[in-house]
Amino acid sequence: MTTAPKQLHLAAHFPGVNNTTVWADPRSRSQIDFSSFEHLARTAERGLFDFFFLAEGLRLREHNGLIHDLDVAGHPEPLTVLAALAAVTDRLGLAATVNATFNEPYELARRLATLDHLSAGRAGWNVVASSDAFTGENFRRGGCLNRAGLPQALGSARTGGNPLTRAAESVATARGLWDSWTPDGTPRRFAHRGAHFRVEGEFTVPRPPQGHPVVIQAGDSPEGREFAASAADIIFARHGTLEAGRTFYADVKARLAKYGREPDELKIMPGVGFVLGDSDAEAQEKASEIRRQQISPQNAMLALEQVWGQDLSSYDPDGPLPESDPVPDAALVQGRVRTGDPLAVAARWRALSREKGLSIRQTVIEATGRRSFVGSPRTVAAEMAEYVATEAADGFVLVPHLTPGGLDDFVDEVVPLLQERGVFRTAYTGSTLRSHLGLAKPVWKG
């Protein structure tokens, strides 16, 4: 008996304010004009993707006390953009990052339920939590939450608690609000009293078509993995190799049982780049040029200063790495997520630089960036299928390097090969995001 190949899930990420987009390419267009969002979303729907994904930016990033002028492109509010895209797409899921630290669960639940109704069941929420006092300065509450659960203050305002516990309570509260309307359309009073929120009253929006909009969690820490296992439908992961993907996949899936969940109830979808060429060699050459464009000398120095935590403007990006150690608590670069211990990162970069004789810029190019599939369309299709078949991922969130046309070649050249392999749909069989993902509608908890 022949077993059908495991199906692969695909999503399209519209690049936010970052150095992913190659702005020097004449094909790069606005990140603000609605036509750009519409182009990428329509392309994703033409390719039968599961969903379209928008990130959230709550403050412009700064470098040495000044707004970072290499990536100031603007960042519209994502749920508003998705509501507009609901009118120009029919089946494509519509997901956005919305910060649980700086938004209240009642309003989040209301906005997401509205999007789910407007789109006939295609809404998704990427839940993130922030411990960033820099971003918190943009909010009237004026505080932030740190990872250790200790209160931090901005001015006289104080808020305490771990950001992930607040996010988990925010999700649970939103789900309770969505379930406060019966399936036949009867509202009921709702009351929640927890460590972070007290919500009491009546919800204004009937239960969403999906029951609950799809919940996505982005994070690789042990706490993030546990949160995803307990509460998420998708985990937006980041790992660089096939083996690392298998290790991550096995770890996260093994956590589900303690919450009474089956492995298929959580989809693991790492964010990846891709570069296509007529041959593997041509694609590799293109990929090298794209990385040089993404990591300009200025961006290389920004990445270096983010790790070292000090002004390194006297260094040559084509010269060697600093001999001094990083200053872990410095705030030279504001608004960028720091990943890993700076001392450990610096040690890895130095080892890589010594081993391969790399300059600062060359080291940053090689040491940073997401996993990318590089090769001919047939090579890329085969590698993606292998990741899914060998349980390194359930699918991928594609991050193109061109806005908004960067997905066109993938849809035209790789999707047909995935379909030929029998690992990707040839037509939408359902109308909701949950149906695309193979996720059941949550049972109403009256």
From TrEMBL:
As recorded in UniProt, its EC number(s) are 1.14.-.-
Q: Which residues form the Luciferase-like domain?
A: 29-390
Similarity-based family: Belongs to the NtaA/SnaA/DszA monooxygenase family.
Listed transmembrane segments: none
Gene Ontology molecular function: any one: monooxygenase activity
Identify which top EC class this enzyme belongs to. oxidoreductase
List, alphabetically, the SUPFAM superfamilies matched.
Bacterial luciferase-like
- Please name the NCBIfam families in this protein's record: FMN_nitrolo (TIGR03860)
| Ubl conjugation as UniProt keyword | no
| Protein name according to UniProt | NtaA/DmoA family FMN-dependent monooxygenase
**Keywords assigned by UniProt, alphabetized:** Flavoprotein, FMN, Monooxygenase, Oxidoreductase
- Pfam families, per the entry: Bac_luciferase
> Which organism is this entry from?
Streptomyces laculatispora
Origin: domain of life: Bacteria
Tell me which PANTHER family the record gives.
ALKANESULFONATE MONOOXYGENASE-RELATED, C2H2 FINGER DOMAIN TRANSCRIPTION FACTOR (EUROFUNG)-RELATED
